[in-house]
């Protein structure tokens, strides 16, 4: 199997193209500041037993609450879902829940930065593939992100369009149906994603080839991505999107 065997690349966005962990952690700054001023000693999700939440603790708590809320309310707009998760974090960490702070966090997606290799890699790949976004986000939030990515995507499919959040396989069935309408066989699609939980498990269950962008290589813990149990199959592994582009340039 070679990268040049494919005609279409579908991308997860947040965590794969966008550095969502830095974006999330930065957007948690007001809540983190209030946590420090309160003198609270959080009782959940501590990795080091120090009585203080590390960056990793906070991201893992976010991942746990986000995936639970997505399963509970698959029709909720992602910006609203982020706001709800932010409020749940405040409650869990024993500080006051502030609705205006929740809403600001929900709108913070527009400020989340791309990874350093994203834009150049997308611009290269755009010359050789059709590029599609399949994302757990809403249309307005992705529109703000798209301006940071430097390319025009051939299609954008969001959780708002589909009515479900990955890892629900309905997201991938929706993608496959749209491609079938366009005359694209599933064998010509490669799904490109960082999250084993959100993307590779459901994609592979439907027989899709996938490329793992292992942004967390060499790092312990799952960060803002929920963990998976057992082995997960993928067809390619790269530590960044730039590596994928270089592999294609070198012959696949």
Explain the overall architecture:
This protein has 252 residues and is of the alpha/beta class. The chain has 2 domains: 3-19 and 113-249, HAD superfamily/HAD-like (Rossmann fold, 3-Layer(aba) Sandwich), CATH 3.40.50.1000; 20-110, DNA polymerase, domain 1. 45% of the residues lie in helices and 11% in strands. It contains 11 helices and 6 strands. The chain has helices spanning 20-27, 29-38, 55-72, 78-92, 99-106, 118-125, 139-149, 159-162, 170-181, 196-205, 241-249, and strands at residues 8-11, 130-135, 155-158, 189-193, 209-213, 236-238. Strands 3-2-1-4-5-6 form a 6-stranded parallel sheet, sandwiched between helices. The N and C termini lie close together (8 Å). The model is unreliable at 45-50 (pLDDT under 50).
Helices and strands in order, then pairings?
Blueprint: E1 8-11, H1 20-27, H2 29-38, H3 55-72, H4 78-92, H5 99-106, H6 118-125, E2 130-135, H7 139-149, E3 155-158, H8 159-162, H9 170-181, E4 189-193, H10 196-205, E5 209-213, E6 236-238, H11 241-249
Parallel strand pairs: 1-2, 1-4, 2-3, 4-5, 5-6
Helix pairs in contact: 3-4, 4-5, 6-11
Spatial ordering of strands, largest sheet: 3-2-1-4-5-6
Q: Low-confidence runs (pLDDT<50, min 5 residues)?
A: 45-50
Biggest sheet statistics:
6 strands, parallel
User: Judging from the principal axes of the Cα atoms, what is the shape?
Assistant: globular
- The SSE string, one letter per element, is EHHHHHHEHEHHEHEEH
Name the structural class. alpha/beta
- CATH hierarchy, class of the largest domain: Alpha Beta
Proportion of beta-strand residues: 5-15%
CATH superfamily placement of the largest domain: HAD superfamily/HAD-like
CATH fold node name of the largest domain: Rossmann fold
Number of domains: 2
Oligomer: single chain
Q: Compute the gyration radius: what is it? A: 18 Å
Straight-line distance between termini: 8 Å
Overall number of strands = 6
Q: Which whole number gives the mean pLDDT? A: 91
